[in-house]
């Protein structure tokens, strides 16, 4: 399967997808760590994560797919939410918890 189709099928298969460096248990960069912590704190218990360090094809092509240059990248219900800064802003405003609750309900 071509990499852009693989990316799309991951995003469509899970309500919350975090493309990150490392894993939520063992993040390999501070931004990925803070983003996954914000997701957990906002109530996302079973979000799907993809370690871009283990998949160079996804790491190379996701920025083209999403039109977002950096990692991590958070998708909720198939929509790019953004990276670390945006996720933390949404978390602090309470918006992230609402988005996660809706995504997990759907």
TrEMBL record:
Keywords for the protein's UniProt record, in alphabetical order: 2Fe-2S, Iron, Iron-sulfur, Metal-binding, Redox-active center
Pfam family, one: Glutaredoxin
Ranges annotated as spanning the membrane: none
Family indicated by similarity: Belongs to the glutaredoxin family. Monothiol subfamily.
Organism: Lysobacter hankyongensis
UniProt-recorded name of the protein: Glutaredoxin
Domain Glutaredoxin: 16-81
């Amino acid at each position: 399967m071509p990499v852009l189709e693989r990316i799309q099928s991951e995003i469509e298969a899970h309500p919350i997808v975090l493309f990150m460096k490392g894993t939520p248990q063992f993040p390999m960069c501070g931004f990925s760590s803070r983003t996954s912590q914000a997701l957990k704190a906002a109530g996302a218990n079973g979000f799907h994560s993809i370690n871009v360090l283990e998949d160079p094809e996804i790491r190379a092509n996701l920025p083209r797919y999403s039109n977002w240059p950096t990692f991590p990248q958070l998708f909720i219900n198939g929509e790019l939410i953004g990276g670390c800064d945006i996720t933390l802003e949404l978390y602090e405003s309470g918006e992230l918890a609402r988005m996660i609750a809706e995504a997990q309900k759907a």
